[in-house]
Amino acid sequence: MNSEMAQVYETNARVSIPTYDALFGMVQSYFRAELSGEGASVLVIGAGGGNELSAWGPSNPEWTFTGVDISEEMLKIAQHKTNQLGLSNRVKLIHGTINDLPEDTAVYDAASCILVLHFIDNVQEKLDLLRTIHSHLKPGAPFVLVSAYGDRDSTELKDRLHVWGSFWLDAGRAPSKVNEMVNTGIMKISFLPEKQIEGLLQESGFTNITKFFVTGLFGGWICHAAGSNGVGIESEV
Predict the structure, then answer these.
(1) Cβ contacts of residue 182 below 8 Å, gap of 6+?
(2) Does residue 163 lie in a domain region?
(3) Distances from the Cα of 191 to the Cαs of 40, 126, 157, 161, 197, in angstroms?
(4) Would 49 be classed as within a structural domain?
(5) 228 burial class (0-12, 13-18, 19+ CB within 10 angstroms)?
């Protein structure tokens, strides 16, 4: 495991999202409110780094986790945290995408996709990921999505980019470096307007879609997987 890489990742994440640790606590509270006291299986998309595992594993001994990530190096970090916390018997880590889950994998009681969607450029591929996540969830299961969002051409996003840059200035980054990060770094990720993200969730089969988190460039949504039996489907007004 590359400990230096892990440290850089942890530090940068907390600068980029000052409420980073609080976010995982909020998601845990949501899952706890939705899941029974019995054993619950949680699917973690983008598990590299292991922060979901370290945030939710120790305090929820009845939960099991399946984590998927395309970065082998980041999964090594997640495995190291899992071993340190004594969670190995409750965690399965898979190198690849959600499509690499075993074909006989049962559906899950809950799922998270935190800081992944904005790294997928193609809108259809975003939709495919969300649909596949939905297909691996039990009817009514809670799902949490956290992603960068915004209309690239809007003044609103430009204002939030200015605030995001200020996070890094306050963390000691030089103004020239921050400008470079904005112009050639963060703007390379795939931003979608909030309503379009919510539309993708709805099109993927999720319902009760509610925005619960905003910090800087990032937003979070909670929702439920609607089933073919109608579970979790809101009635039309």
Answers:
(1) 161, 164, 165
(2) no
(3) 32, 12, 10, 12, 9
(4) yes
(5) exposed
Looking at residue 135, the DSSP 8-state letter turns out to be H
| Buried/exposed code over 7-19 (b: 16+ C-beta within 10 A; e: otherwise) | eebeeeeeebbee
Task: Please state, in angstroms and rounded to a whole number, the distance separating the CA atoms of residues 146 and 105.
Answer: 24
Domain count, the chain: 1
CATH number of the domain within which 108 lies: 3.40.50.150
What is the CB-side half-sphere exposure of residue 47 using CA atoms within 13 A?
A: 30
Residues in the chain: 237
Give the pLDDT confidence of 87-145 residue by residue, as tens digits. Answer: 999 999 999 999 999 876 779 999 999 999 999 999 999 999 999 999 999 999 999 99
Taking CB atoms within 8 Å and a gap of at least 24, the contacts of 156-165 are 157/191, 157/217, 160/216, 160/217, 161/186, 161/187, 161/217, 163/216, 164/16, 164/216, 164/217
Which domain covers residue 43, as residue numbers?
A: 3-152+190-225
Residue 54 maps to a domain: yes
